[in-house]
Design brief:
The protein is 32% helix and 24% strand. By secondary structure, the protein is α/β, with parallel strands linked by helices.
Length: 336
Amino acid sequence: MAATEKEFQMYAPLKKKHTGPLLQVRGLKSYFFTRDGLIKAVDDLSFDISAGETLALVGESGCGKSMTSLSILRLIPEPGKVVDGEIIFDGQDLLHMPPNEIRRVRGNQISMIFQEPMTSLNPVLKIGEQIAEVLRLHRGMSNTEALAQAAQLLTDVGIPAAKSRLRDFPHQLSGGQRQRVMIAIALACDPQLLIADEPTTALDVTIQAQIMELLANLARDRQMATLLISHDLGVVAGNADRVAVMYAGKIVEYASVTQLFANPTHPYTRGLLACIPRLGDKNPLPTIQGQPDDQKSAVDGCAFLDRCSSPCASGGSKIPQLREITPGHFVRCWRS
């Protein structure tokens, strides 16, 4: 049967116990109105995240992962716009908040780590000033208090000689250190929800592991909810409680991380998992044929049909609904 709102509310992670959803996204639609046509970047998305839990959004570039995070923070660039849906955070309706109220939520109750720290950090401001700015704005600290807290935050994220590094500029730090600074800024106000958009992009595997371990430890210690956006299924397997696989702006599979990796059901999910290199396997890596949907026109039927390894004609022009195939495991496919 198709997933209902009641069933979404019953989604429960298997690793941790929670009292209820911190973030509820219902029927979210974020569209771009361009000269080339309407682009449905996020199309009828629904999910929950509870305190202390990590939900991973995975999929190819352009599937709508980052636009989902920017929709939550109401930071979608023009000509994009959230046209429908609900985003309820800790009982607050984010989509109907006045601009001054949503600014108080960003960086305070909800923080985000962006993909590339070198472009996210201000190159002409010292590291200490960039962290202190958040504390002065949201916590009303004096400059002395904010700098002292900034040094403590750098220590917390594993940067040695923190007081002396406050005087450094971003270009004086390594990629891993810049990412730690971004984490320090994101965690400065002890947020309830952290959005981590590709937090290990362009880092070598050793630093990737250190960054993900750091985020996991901080989330556990603070009971912080995390929305992890990634295309790296290895990172997802080791760090998520639940996984939502996105394609063409929609969730096509939604399950606990254990269920998803043990029983991937949607052809797109199976294709993504098949692309992971395996030690000792000398065969060429398989690929998913074709190109991702451009989302510029209305889709008749399944958006993945032209790329599917086992296409079917079921449903005709109807879009398949998200269906529960086993408890907590939802799939958008006519074959499920």
